[in-house]
Amino acid sequence: MNYEVLSVVFLFAVVALGFWRKCNIGILAVGFSLIIGKIGGMSNSQILGGFDAKLFITLVGVTFLFGIAQSNGTLELIAKRAVGLAGNRTYLVPVILFLVTGLLSAIGPGNIPVGALMTVVAVTIAVEMGENPLLFALAAKVAANGFTITPLAPAGVLTMSLSETAGYTDIIIPVMLNVMLWAVIMMVGFSIHYKIYRIKPGAVAVGGAVSEKKPVTRDQWITIVGMCVMVYLVMFRRLDVGLTSFFVAAVLILLGVAKEKQALAKIPWGTLLLICGVGVLMNVVIEMGGIDLISEALLAIMTPATAAPIIAFISSILSFFSSTTGVVIPTMVPTIGTIVDSLGTGSAGFISLTSVMISSSLSSAFSPASTGGGLILAAYMAASNSENKEQEQQKLFGRLFMIAIACVIANIILSAVGVYGIIK
């Protein structure tokens, strides 16, 4: 029996079934790992070997810590205080939203929780100002996505782990900078298209929720200090990000800055199950030779010159129907490792193609069929005062879909001209 082909069929069948039935792909991945693993003659321990306990601890620790910060209003406070700094220079509001969202995403929570929070904040601010909510929402979402590949955020931690397994270490910083470059380029494009310079001058959200300066509470001050301590210990003392996050979170809970149940409810358990569940299935596929088969198929149409745009196109298509962190990164990073080894482009090639893969996948995330685009659509409609909401929703759905396609095309062009090979 051709186990390589069978494992790849199972992989894509799980993704397709999850998308079709609107259920968590991670649950399906773990369940179907048993079937395909046993067909391939793998033991229970070999099948479960794909569950990365260190990754799970890291994801839970980081998201729990920032769940505390979200549940007691610290993250929203930081965002609104920062936006208020714009004053009469209202054209700076989308830029400030971009920078603040990027910072919050980079220091730990990642793109999903921060994107959810800041998309709502951005749309609320835009409505209060009487401006186009789409520009503000896109500014927040592109920053949440573009600044999530760091050593502290879940997507960055996952990328590091898979890259090290593929034999490539110390690649996270250049990949991080490349993806941030993508975010900046997209933000410039959005700003030009939506004419950021035409935002009418005046005080930001006069009399609204944004300009209302509530005092910083004791719990929020302690939480801010705790987040700073976590970043310092991880970045400068080289402590494990997951264990450090649990330590700081434990101290914050003992100090009573938030209710434990509320903070636990903020952890995106579905996302964590998705990431770790797909990891179990991917381990089975790798063991059965499925990744080698995919890599060989791609190599048949690739050269060092065409590898980047082909990877960009494939990653974009995958992301239209699945999660970047949960599916695209776990599937593509091992494939890229094999491709780079065959092409002989070394560490620089791995950095470039990984950057291309992530940025291309994130470009598709503006589609309303994805989590990011869906959040924008939901926040926009919740804040809309339109009498004909159904017609407006359909119009926005189509607009977001076209934005995603435009971003994908732009990123394939950027990949083809070698933009992601600059930072190595």
From TrEMBL:
Dicarboxylate carrier MatC N-terminal domain location, by residue?
1-145
Q: Which residue ranges run through the membrane?
A: 6-35, 55-75, 95-127, 134-159, 171-192, 241-258, 270-291, 297-321, 333-353, 396-423
Instruction: Name the Pfam families on file.
Output: MatC_N
Keyword annotations for this protein, in alphabetical order, are: Membrane, Transmembrane, Transmembrane helix
Q: What start and end residues bound the annotated signal peptide?
A: none
What is the protein named? Answer: C4-dicarboxylate ABC transporter
Q: Which organism is it from?
A: Enterocloster asparagiformis
